[in-house]
């Protein structure tokens, strides 16, 4: 009888241990993916917009963060970004806000996220736009925004609604960049002056994505070629052109460049100038050349 009692006790103990191990295994948390993190951050951004609370997202920025938006000059650092969002939040309430990530590129030290957003304000105005964010790891398992850039899918009737001059508390001076990147920037300037669609489209990879000012996202070199055919069909002369770089990151297969431009142009009977900011990811191809793989362009309102 004692032998049976010992046997039963042993089996019971073994089952209890196995159940404990199974429970322990089942409670092990799954690794947090970049996609999971971005989804959570986007929900925070939505909540901040709908509740007019920058505090919800303030930890996503630091002193190195850059903000580029249509109609605004470059906004530098978390303190200036706070001024921007506090001012925007005070102007109008957002009734509906949706964001959708379309593309994510991961590097060891940076993450590029591209997506679309829609906002509906309490006055019923609906605004649709696109964004390109560059994230960096903060060393504690979280991400921070190295740069946030967003624009709209069409021209805004009243750009002043989106302009926050008080957020321009500091400015960055242009910096020198690696010689090969400078050479490709010079080639880009030459292409803008020449206004030949095929030359400009050849600056991009076959599967590039470009987020142009006041337009939809353009994907693929063939689509970009048609885009530039339409863009260059108007008779315009580039009288002067300056391209600036404010910062750049080196990634495994190329560079991420944060910059701006200033151009004087003229058409028959009229002349003017345009200025803006933008982010471009230059990817090294199999032939070792650099091509633009992801890019957003934004214009400043004057």
From TrEMBL:
It comes from the Bacteria. Gene3D superfamilies: 3.10.450.50. This is Nuclear transport factor 2 family protein. It comes from Aquimarina litoralis.
């Amino acid at each position: 009888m004692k032998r049976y009692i010992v046997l039963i006790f042993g089996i019971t103990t073994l089952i209890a241990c196995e159940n404990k191990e199974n429970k322990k295994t089942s409670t092990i948390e799954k690794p947090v993916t970049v996609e999971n993190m971005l989804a959570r951050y986007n929900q925070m951004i939505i909540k901040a917009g709908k509740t007019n609370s920058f505090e919800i997202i303030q930890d996503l920025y630091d002193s190195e963060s850059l903000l580029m938006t249509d109609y605004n000059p470059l906004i530098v650092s978390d303190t200036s970004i706070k001024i921007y969002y506090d001012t925007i939040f005070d102007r109008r309430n957002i009734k509906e806000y949706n964001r959708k990530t379309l593309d994510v590129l991961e590097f060891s030290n940076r993450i590029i996220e591209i997506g679309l957003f829609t906002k509906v304000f309490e006055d019923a105005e609906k605004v649709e736009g696109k964004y390109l964010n560059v994230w960096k790891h903060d060393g504690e398992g979280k991400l921070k925004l190295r740069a946030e850039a967003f624009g709209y899918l069409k021209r805004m009737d009243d750009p002043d609604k989106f302009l926050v001059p008080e957020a321009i508390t500091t400015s960055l001076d242009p910096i020198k960049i690696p010689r090969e990147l400078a050479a490709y920037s010079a080639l880009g300037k030459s292409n803008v002056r020449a206004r030949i669609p095929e030359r400009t489209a050849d600056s991009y990879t076959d599967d590039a994505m470009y987020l142009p000012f006041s337009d939809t996202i353009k994907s693929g070199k063939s689509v970009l070629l048609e885009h530039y055919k339409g863009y260059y069909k108007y008779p315009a002369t580039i009288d002067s052109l300056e391209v600036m770089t404010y910062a750049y990151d080196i990634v495994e297969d190329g560079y991420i460049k944060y910059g701006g431009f200033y151009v004087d142009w003229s058409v028959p009977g009229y002349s003017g100038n345009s200025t803006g900011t933008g982010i471009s990811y230059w990817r090294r191809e199999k032939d070792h050349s650099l091509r633009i793989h992801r890019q957003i362009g934004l214009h400043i309102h004057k």
